[in-house]
């Protein structure tokens, strides 16, 4: 799993996490992140997990701690960045941790400082208009959150809750995560690669309307997939032009992107509905059960049947 490298941090006693809140204390981006982590710290005790929660000013006055294992700079998307000198100091504090990154607008500030060069990042869709200068330095994805090497990013908002709960599961297992979900009345944790619903439209709608239109067609035709030639004709492009757009902006071929959309939908149906595996395959455009299973395994690393077991089996630590 993409976040499994974090599991080795749980061997550290105690695990020390730095959260720098550069936004409002009642913002959803901050609350969604800090609440699950506070609950985890309360359940596990200071011998296993310690949270250092600081403002940018407090972080700047604190000496870098080599003992921090994970550090995140957090701000809601409307927040203006701190003054440059203060921001540089805060970034230095975060970078002293073994894993570090940003949530919400914090991701943009890290990328803008040149610290996300060549890294896959999940940025709030509302900030995509500010990323023109970043496209050569960071790799934007439409996902909710990312772990790339030592660097973490989350688009913020409601996704902060999914991000925090994924961190908890990666560090301390499904049993601790399940207890926090129950305490917060959360039924489902969205996976990291679930897409921000309007991210593509926000990023490309004005500059690349043909690309946005092609993706919309794909999303509307999951059960009976269109061919690449059909999609190209419907948006008024040649097949080659469409493939060029997908390669340039999404680093994928239209056929590959479409397949992953259908498989993402299949995984959602396996986890959230009682449709049989055969029905799910048919609903996502797979007439062959073996093709569905092979494609699903190639993308997610497990079979549709194993994915369904996640829904049926009780959590295990």
TrEMBL record:
<dbReference type="InterPro" id="IPR018062">
    <property type="entry name" value="HTH_AraC-typ_CS"/>
</dbReference>
<dbReference type="GO" id="GO:0003700">
    <property type="term" value="F:DNA-binding transcription factor activity"/>
</dbReference>
<dbReference type="InterPro" id="IPR050204">
    <property type="entry name" value="AraC_XylS_family_regulators"/>
</dbReference>
<keyword id="KW-0805">Transcription regulation</keyword>
<feature type="domain" description="HTH araC/xylS-type">
    <location>
        <begin position="212"/>
        <end position="310"/>
    </location>
</feature>
<keyword id="KW-0238">DNA-binding</keyword>
<dbReference type="InterPro" id="IPR018060">
    <property type="entry name" value="HTH_AraC"/>
</dbReference>
<dbReference type="InterPro" id="IPR029062">
    <property type="entry name" value="Class_I_gatase-like"/>
</dbReference>
<keyword id="KW-0804">Transcription</keyword>
<dbReference type="Pfam" id="PF12833">
    <property type="entry name" value="HTH_18"/>
</dbReference>
<dbReference type="InterPro" id="IPR009057">
    <property type="entry name" value="Homeodomain-like_sf"/>
</dbReference>
<protein>
    <submittedName>
        <fullName>Helix-turn-helix domain-containing protein</fullName>
    </submittedName>
</protein>
<dbReference type="GO" id="GO:0043565">
    <property type="term" value="F:sequence-specific DNA binding"/>
</dbReference>
